[in-house]
Amino acid sequence: MDLFYDLLLWLHIVAFAAGGAYPAVMPFLFEKLAGASQEETRAALFSIGNTISRIGRIAMVVLLITGPVLLWMRFGGLSGATTWFWVKIALIVVMLVSLVIGGINFKKAEKGDASGLVVAETAGRIAAVAYLGVLLAAVFAFS
User: Fold this and answer.
1) Most distant CA pair in the chain: distance in Å?
2) What's the gap between Cα 103 and its chain centre?
3) 34-58: per-residue pLDDT in tens?
4) pTM assigned to the model
5) Radius of gyration over alpha carbons of the chain, in Å?
6) Are 56 and 21 in contact (CB under 8 A)?
7) N- to C-terminal Cα distance for the chain?
8) DSSP state, 111?
9) Of 14, 32, 114, 128, which residue is most buried, by most CB within 10 angstroms?
10) Was domain 2-141 assigned CATH 1.10.3470?
11) What confidence tens digit (pLDDT) does each residue in 87-136 have?
12) What letter would DSSP give residue 113?
């Protein structure tokens, strides 16, 4: 069972790293999109953004499955949950909401809605801060 736990933890960490591509890369992409005037350039940037977003969604699903399983395997449920754990959960909710709002507005921007890009960028910044907070809270919750 230790091997299964270790592999699951590895998968959880890989998903967290993969999911981190969105908050790490998207602010730069938004900046380039705002200044891009050629349709070919905009299409390429939107394609990159959509790929990063897809990877982030897959990573989030993996995290939402592996996280509770790891918690159950290690602590038998929520009995080992600390205040930092609940801070982490709250930040995950903030991150999820931000990513959904950002994704919806990124699609609007792709269809030509300039205000969608502004909202997506703001949501992306919130997701980035929440992502860093999740990592910090996890360190305190499980150390």
Assistant:
1) 55
2) 11
3) 888 899 999 999 999 999 999 999 9
4) 0.87
5) 17
6) yes
7) 21
8) T
9) 128
10) no
11) 999 999 999 999 999 999 999 999 999 899 999 999 999 999 999 999 99
12) -
